[in-house]
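Standup, Tuesday
Yesterday: got the pipeline producing structure tokens again.
Today: sanity-check two examples.
Blockers: none.

Example 1:
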Amino acid sequence: MKGAASLFKNFLSLVGAEAYSKLITFAAFAYLARICGPAGFGYVEWSAAILMCASLIVDQGFSSFGAREIAKNPDETGQLVAEIVSARFLLAGVSFFAIVAFAFAFVREENVLKLVLAYGLSVWTLPLLLQWVFQGHDRMKFVAFTQIVRQTVFVAVVIIMVRKADDLVFVGLAEVAGVTFAAAFSVWIYRKYFAGKIQFRPVLSRRLFFEGAPIGMSQMFWVIRMFGATLILGLVASAEDTGYFAGAMRILIALHTFVWLYFFNLLPSMSRAWTEGPGKFTSLVNRSVLLVSSACVVVGVVWIFIAHFAMSVAYGPSFSSGGGALRWLAVVWVAAAISGHYRFGLIAANQQRREMVTSAIGSVVALILIPFGYGLSGINGAAAALGFAEIIVLATSWIFARRYLFDNALYRPAIDEGCLEQLGEVAR
């Protein structure tokens, strides 16, 4: 198992790259919000949510599956690349067809239709993003470089090409450019540093779909919760309310990325620890839970108190109405940061189907409660519903992990069970 120093070094590489990427990307979206206004910004975020759903069809959990298997057996790298890239190109065709069908069925405004279709073109280069290979080999600096290339190109195209609200199509084309450059860069890195393992020949396997699909479905359920909330509001709420909510969600997702990076970095070590015995696995998870839970209390409370100020600073005074929703979204972030130990632990231990179930339960709860919450209390109610759904994910993943992963004689829950309740009280 990798030492704590190596894990920390890898995490710093990822955090540094993501901090840079999120900073410039957030600046680009703040620029778009000021140019397009709440309604136009809502269209951009709604289109981006459609792309996120489509990209999960392309991935299908193959990234996490591939990284896990490479961490256990690096000699399988070439075979896994061949299988996963082939499968992703096949699914890219399905995904693009779904985007086109959805766009022509539900989009009425010409500018928004062009934006959605432009975003959709990027699915054709997503299969060649190979960060999961570098993750499996613990070469996180390559993951970081690829992300920097992608977001730098995206932001550059947005700033250069988008000058007025009618230029929304260029936001989609900026995404195409960013993904294409990042894919080309990651393929170059792969060929340079894994020359002995190149097998870019089409091949598919039953194992890939059998083991990867549950992870992909879990990711899809996560997208339904996070991006689906914006999609739902785009269908039932005003464009302005969608824009306010989307702005708050943009902040949540930007900060949630650091949670995801933490577990992205931890997954290979979890996979190896699982093969070494329950003692090492339990010790690794418990130490991490203690560290993350302590940080969550501080971050969550600060988040709640500065929410309104953050919305006004990020998007301008006209977006201050989204501050209440952002306060409730703090609960989503905290719950996800803690539940990640159990969700990724289940994946590391080949229990991805049970992890998928936890995500599915949370998504069903979110789909039911978000429209209900919006009807009762507007975007604040929708955000509170999303927070409750994420707490359900935390509870179910903890139950599964305790039953299937940990030796009860060794395992001691490290969660401060009053943490989320206290944050909920502060938010109310």
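Example 2:
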Amino acid sequence: MKTEQINKIMSLLKKENVDVVSFQFVDIPGNLKSVAVPTKTEINKKDFEDYLENGIGFDGSSVEGFVRIAESDLVLMPDLTTFKIFPWKVDNIVEARIICDVFRPGGQPFEGDPIHVLRETIKRLEKKIGKGTTFNLGPEIEFFIFQTTDGMTVMPLKTDVYGYFDYTPLDKATISVNRAIFYLQELGINVEKVHHECARGQYEINFRYDSAFKTAVNFITYKLAVKTAVSENDLFASFMPKPIFGVAGSGSHTHQSIFDKEGNNIFFDPEDDYHLSETARYFLAGQLKHTRGIAAVTNPTVNSYKRLTPGYEAPVYVCWARRNRSALVRVPEYFPGREKATRLEARWPDPSMNPFLAFSVMLEAGLDGIENKLELANPVEEDVYHFDDAKLKKFYIETLPGTLGEAMSLLEKSEIARRALGDYIVKKILEAQRAQWEPYRIQVHKWELDRYLAR
């Protein structure tokens, strides 16, 4: 099978006249990394075929969260199923990519590789529920398009004066979005719909749900394709959770379901009021119990917590509902004949997350609920934003962390995060986040000067 896949890739390189292939991997914060290999000379062709078979070595000591200089050698092992030729060209250079797992030279998986972490969590899912079980996800990734002047970002886009679901005339922003859709489709990502979001210059392109690993790959590919398409029109795409004060931030609402090996949605129950199975209820209870402890993974930046505030449809309160969009998790309405669409919409994650790590902790939290048969609290269909402290206490509703500092403290104590990610990655996440939090915490901001300087 592997030989057949390698032969197919080598044939595509020749047929499509590919100049270079990027062996891509993901660091712990979720940045896309790459080792590029030219393919045209006979020597390179021979080396490239060997890389497909045996992997390619690289120095991991300079990659954030990876290894120390004394243990720097690592190996990129390509996942041959992820080979894609990019639909865009720079100076007529044809580039392809292949996603890689990271191994140590002895052949052991590298414990700091986010892709390995997700693969291991999926194995635990299959062990608990059954071989061939899939954790399906469909993220709704929002982003802003800004114009730039002399290399400096200008916010917002001057020509964009539109709001939620507005039909927009053909300008540079909509041309960019249309080009991004084309790129995504060419890369095998099934785009289902696109619309203008609440804020000026804010958009959302929805692609079809898939298994956890494929969706994580699609997530990082989506961001790359959007940034590329937008930059080709001399604009700038940002996935920052809250780039503009006073308007809606960018979330990554993530729809979740579990299918058995026959393709049946095990979250569906026709007799339940919410059409949720017992398994789905346990899973949801687990996520609600552990969300505070994993928030530093699903919302990993200082800026993430500027989005998680009342008033802009971003969730703050740990509860669930059907129609209430202030809830942490929403259960979309069931339509007869669409049993496979029964799902849980996690509304708290944002686009700055590393999808491999975020999907791992979200799944692990749900599995803990299933394993321990956690009881699900009643839904809260009222707008929780208008609850006072007494009412929150009455409904036993907790809140998400208010800052990255608080989220870090909760992550450090989270057994679920350590079970999903391992001590190594939790330690590296906390080190990277302290490097964000401490300079931010001691910085004197303009708001403080405006408020206190004259006192």
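Quick observation on example 2: Residues 120-451 form a domain with the Creatine Kinase; Chain A, domain 2 fold (CATH 3.30.590.10). DSSP finds twelve helices and 17 strands in the chain.
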